């Protein structure tokens, strides 16, 4: 019998969370889609893995047997895939969100090339609906990420630098002419948000910890171009890294510093199974050395 490893990853998340809603948020999928995948796995195995109730998802005896074996199975498969790709292609796949490590990205890639002659870094941009930039699903070997993000406690993360969060506004906005804006003045504004399934990564970019009450959502976007268009069209404003003013300058949008909101952090993340991988270790070292001059 052939079972898609994706189904096993979904099963493992539900087994660990004991709740479909939390598991769906962790996996960045909708709850109906997750329910369908679990039922598909049960159909393939010919047995019920969970008992469902208002209190959540409880493992059956068969489910507990599978839950005991799946983590080691997936870890072994992921390691095998990464080692096979590395041995055959000498390509390091690195996921990233938006501007990655800002201006330091070319220096990181150059330094890695010097450390690992013959190797190439394949940069893969991920949608904002996937804050791990593909790392959680083993689509990449390492990822340049914005902290915090859901699931980071299950990965290795090395913080590289931080930078202030600013606000992106339509140029016609009444506050656009200010040199600096207090975050409290923005609480009642509609915000352009990341998809709801990104959980507390979305909350971070809505300033949830620094405001009273729930934010107003004017638009939901998944890509930088969509995000810029929503702001320029007046659907909402958005918190953004200070570097967005350089990387995402666009007519009709202005970026302004914001008081009373904490910074955003950039990190390099990798799988715990790769702690002894010398190629990953070299890439992490290059990231640390190249970002020492980044904003603190």
From TrEMBL:
Domain HTH lysR-type: 3-60
InterPro entries membership: LysR_HTH_N, LysR_subst-bd, WH-like_DNA-bd_sf, WH_DNA-bd_sf
Claim: DNA-binding is one of the keywords in the record: yes
Keyword Transcription regulation set for record: yes
Domain of life assignment: Bacteria
Keywords tagged on the record: DNA-binding, Transcription, Transcription regulation
Entry-linked Gene3D superfamilies: Periplasmic binding protein-like II, Winged helix-like DNA-binding domain superfamily/Winged helix DNA-binding domain
TM ranges: none
Record family assignment: Belongs to the LysR transcriptional regulatory family.
Designated name of the protein: LysR family transcriptional regulator
Species this protein is from: Amycolatopsis thermalba
């Amino acid at each position: 019998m052939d079972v898609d490893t994706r189904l096993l990853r979904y099963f493992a998340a539900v087994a660990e969370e004991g709740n479909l809603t939390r598991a769906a948020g962790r996996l960045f999928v909708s709850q109906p889609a997750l329910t369908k995948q679990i039922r598909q796995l049960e159909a393939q195995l010919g047995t019920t893995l969970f008992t469902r109730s208002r209190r959540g998802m409880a493992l059956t005896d068969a489910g507990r047997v599978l839950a005991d074996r799946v983590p080691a199975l997936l870890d072994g498969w992921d390691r095998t895939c990464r080692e096979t790709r590395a041995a055959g292609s000498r390509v390091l796949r690195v996921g990233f969100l938006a501007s990655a490590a800002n201006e330091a990205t070319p220096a990181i890639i150059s330094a890695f090339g010097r450390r690992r002659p013959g190797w190439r870094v394949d940069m893969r941009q991920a949608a904002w609906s996937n804050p791990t930039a593909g790392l959680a699903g083993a689509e990449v070997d390492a990822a340049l990420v914005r902290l915090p993000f859901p699931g980071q406690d299950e990965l290795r993360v090395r913080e590289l630098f931080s930078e202030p969060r600013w606000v992106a506004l339509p140029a016609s906005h009444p506050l656009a002419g200010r040199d600096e804006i207090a975050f409290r003045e923005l609480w009642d504004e509609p915000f352009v948000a990341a998809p709801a399934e990104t959980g507390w990564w979305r909350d971070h970019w809505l300033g949830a910890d620094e405001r009273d009450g729930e934010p107003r959502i004017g638009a939901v976007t998944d890509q930088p171009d969509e995000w810029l268009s929503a702001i320029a069209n007046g659907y909402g404003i958005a918190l953004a890294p200070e570097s967005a003013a350089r990387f995402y300058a666009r007519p009709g949008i202005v970026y302004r510093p914001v008081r009373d909101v904490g910074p955003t952090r950039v990190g390099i993340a990798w799988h715990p199974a790769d702690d002894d991988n010398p190629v990953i270790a070299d890439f992490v070292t290059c990231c640390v050395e190249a970002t020492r001059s980044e904003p603190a």
